[in-house]
Amino acid sequence: MMNRWYSFGRLFAFFLLGTVSAHAQWSTVFQDQGKRELNAVFFLDANTGWIAGDRSIIHMTQDGGESWTTLNPGISANLNDIYFRNLDEGWLVASRARILRTQNGGNSWELVYQLSARAGTRETDEPDFYSVYFPSKKQGWVVGTHGRILHTEDGGQSWRLQESGTTEELTHVRFVNDRRGWVVGGRGTILFTDDGGRTWERQNSGVPGYIYHIEARGKDSAWAVGDDGTILRTTNAGLTWERVAVDTRERLLSIVFADGKRGWIIGWNGAIFRSADSGKTWVEQASGTTANLHSLTMMKKDIWVVGAEGVVLRYRDR
Questions:
Q1: Mean pLDDT across the stretch 118-142?
Q2: 249-272 pLDDT, tens digit each
Q3: What domains are defined for the chain?
Q4: Dist. CA 107–CA 48, nearest whole Å
Q5: CB 232 within 8 A of CB 225
Q6: Which of 124, 165, 248, 305 pairs with 317 at a CA distance of 20 to 30 A?
Q7: Is the pLDDT of residue 15 over 90?
Q8: Burial (CB count <10 Å: 0-12, 13-18, 19+), residue 204
Q9: How far apart are CA 197 and CA 93, in angstroms?
């Protein structure tokens, strides 16, 4: 009985989504010639965006993805995340625990922070940073291996470690204002702060695997995704997290919401899911690719996705 009603619910949700976006579809709009892994995508407005990935790759568009220009970060590294505050000021986090800044839209980059490895550390055990986020001009956070959370209060001029209370690998950080934010990572880790990171408390995710990405809208609503088709949802700032049923076991790597209702998730083997009811139910969309998808963002009515083999996808939500 439960399976029958679950199937009916998925069919009904699929019908609702289809009536809203019957003419919308995913399309491949760009592919890096070297087919290098793309790890991050960020759009500042409908026209201006950046993609970044392994082996120092950065491309920029100023015409909504119609054409892309290659930028040089000035280092040999895998680029894990990219974030721009405005058309000039942007940030990269790179392999070997490096933070880079640009003040001219990405035309040149400077190394502003690097966490050195201890003597004798194997290359596979070197520290790394994975995610960067600035909720305002002065306040910013970076997270990475061994439970590291870095914080700046002066717009990135200086960075200090905050006490996270964990040694788990931390994969993503998201703040809704200068005080309230979340960090997620290995072994179901969800950390929450309401005082700008002076203290971090662990929330109960109820899952054993990695959580790779978290999205938040307003003060209380947040969603997270991870291993084995994990989708988590909270409406009370993480006091409780519920696991949302979805018909997949794929590793889910990124989630974004356009508003309180419409959201998208991407993951391995070309997996893309969409929700139209605040993440209560999710329906799979045809991505047109089997590449592992790593990161997504939304700007206006365009959703952008990047992943393995240098692929860039776009979906126009009309």
A1: 87
A2: 999 999 999 998 999 999 999 999
A3: 26-316 (2.130.10.10)
A4: 14
A5: yes
A6: 248
A7: no
A8: exposed
A9: 20
